[in-house]
Amino acid sequence: MSIFKNTEVAFKDKNRFDLYRAYLLFKIISNPILSKILITILKISFKLHLPINWIIKNTVFKQFCGGENIRTSKKITKKLWASKIGSILDYSVEGNQSELDFNKCMNEIINCIKYASENDNIPFSVFKTTGITNFELLKKISSGNELNEIEKKQKYLLEKKFDKICYNAEKYNVPILVDAEESWIQNAIDEIVLKMQKKYNKHKPIVYNTLQMYRHDRIKYLNQILKDAKKEKFYLGLKIVRGAYHQKEINRAKKFNYICPVHTLKNKTDEDFNEALKICVKNYEIVSICAGTHNEESSAILSKLITNNNINNRIYFSQLLGMSDHISYNLSKKNYNVAKYVPYGPIREVIPYLIRRAEENISIEGQIGRELSNIILEIKRRN
Ligand SMILES: Cc1cc2nc3c(=O)[nH]c(=O)nc-3n(C[C@H](O)[C@H](O)[C@H](O)COP(=O)(O)OP(=O)(O)OC[C@H]3O[C@@H](n4cnc5c(N)ncnc54)[C@H](O)[C@@H]3O)c2cc1C
Question: Looking at domain 67-344, which of 1.20.120.140, 3.20.20.220, 3.40.50.300, 3.50.50.60 is its CATH number?
Answer without folding.
Answer: 3.20.20.220
